[in-house]
Amino acid sequence: MKTDRSNILTCLRNSGDYVSGQQLCDRLGVSRTAVWKVINQLKEEGYQIESVSRKGYRLVESPEDVYTRSEILSRLHTKWAGQNLHFFEETGSTNPDAKRFAEEGEPHGTTVVAERQTAGRGRRGRSWVSPAGKSVYFTIVVRPKFDPDKASMITLVMALSVAEAIEEATGLAAGIKWPNDIVVNGKKVVGILTELSMTPEMNEIQFLVAGVGVNVNHDSAEEFPEEIRETATSLKIESGRPIARAVLLARILARFEENYEAFEQNLTLSGLKERYEAHLIGRDAGVRVLDPAGEYTGISRGINETGELIVERETGEIVLVYAGEVSVRGLYGYT
Ligand code: BTN
Hints:
The structure is a single chain. Helix content is 31%, strand content 24%. By secondary structure, it is α+β, with helices and mostly antiparallel strands. The chain has a 7-stranded mixed beta sheet with strand order 3-4-5-9-8-7-6, with helices on both faces. Strands 13-12-11-10-14 form a 5-stranded antiparallel beta sheet. The protein has a two-stranded antiparallel sheet with strand order 1-2. Helix 4 packs across helix 8 (245-266). The model has no long low-confidence stretch (mean pLDDT 93). It binds biotin (BTN). The site of biotin has 19 residues, from helix 5, strand 5, strand 8 and strand 9.
């Protein structure tokens, strides 16, 4: 649900010109006092809004990195992704929050965003350190109408969407380390944690949540926990300029909506494979597959239409590596 605040901000932003107080009242069905109150609030938060008598209000400039529910909604042009948006200044982890909202019946596309997480979760039981002010942490709920064996593809759909959004927002080249880490200049900028909830009979997906953490405005590697200092980076470190998190998040959600719908057409990655592979790091290069049943090396030959990594072993044998079971490393370094 959009608030008066985000509606007014959206109207001003979309118009790019003066919008009269009366127009705002008529379009949004709110009183003159409500408009006036919101405009003052926005000015206090650092939005530069010009008020000219007989002309109305014009949004001149937004502060650098406003990260609020209204700001995100005013940037969002999706049908369902993120339209039902919860924003928390602080929470434990957005993944369990999203699951709770999904269990309470909230719709496909419901999104939980946090400024800070006190118990951020990474993959393989690791934690995801989540201080305020510099990162994007969000989780989106999807309610797929397909078998659980297709669910792991959603993680790849998200990875592609985040990589594309980062490229649009920053001009950086974002690579994907299969299946779902996003890497810029050899270092990780994004982690994705997807979790599935099954019906009580365990035969159908009830919903799925995809949680995404993006390192955005860190000034230096010193700001990361020591264990990841060598392998992590931020978009600001790599591009040399700050990135507005609300803009980036809105782009990620837009890309995800579009790519998810392409995936839904035939429940394979056929429509996305080419773009995914264009981002895939280490294609046609050596990889080490860390399979619990035994490590092996081979050459990465891209993905198939269901998202498995195709690895050609020295013997010429082709192995399909399933996401989730194993991790894959390049022969040298993190990627
Ligand atoms: C990884 O280990 O690479 C996955 C990290 C996923 C982090 C995100 S931040 C938003 C969401 N909430 C969490 O607690 N984890 C995910």
